[in-house]
Amino acid sequence: MKAVRIVIIAKAPLAGFAKTRLIPALGSQGAAALARRLLAHTLSCALDARLGQVELCVTPSALDTVWQTLPVSEDMRAALHWSEQGEGDLGVRLVRAAQRTIEGGESVLLIGTDCPALGATELQQAALALQSADATLFPTADGGYALLGLKRFHPSLFEGIAWSTDSVAFETLCRIARLGWSVQSHPMLHDIDEPADLKWLPQDWLEENPAWQLAEDRTPLARSV
What we know:
By secondary structure, the protein is an alpha/beta fold. It contains six helices and seven strands. The radius of gyration is 17 Å and the shape is globular.
């Protein structure tokens, strides 16, 4: 059985750079604060899953000082393998990450940092699915996916995809089918991308930062400056 590597595709949680679609609701600093919380949560869950190597694939460069300010312990930081996403659109960057992992003899779980519902249990379920299937996927309510797991590589899964649209998961599954691969799909999860998605944050997160809550009419209760 192949070893499984979790590759986290991550943007630095900088104001005006990360979670920009949340800026109208939270302000640039508030959106960056939520990006930091999501990133720390994702790292913790990936390490807690204890599946194998956890790789943090970042932009900007791993040498940028912003990565020295992550709210994680030194032990957690030391447990990570660091890599850089490089140039190109999301599809190009995912091709590089998936290809190098699979050609290196491991299966890969590709995840972002937008889905607090994707925890250690879900990561373990995905790894288990790859014991019998060629691919596995956790779709999201917006039509994308929170996780794509692969034990085989083909660039067509990433090339020419209309990223950030409601067709991403469907198109990916269609391409897997055209390759003749087996796939196991899991229950739908919720990403945090738009202001209306904030209601899907864990309740304890909302309690620790009321600015992340939305009123019933889905307007912000508070704005960061």
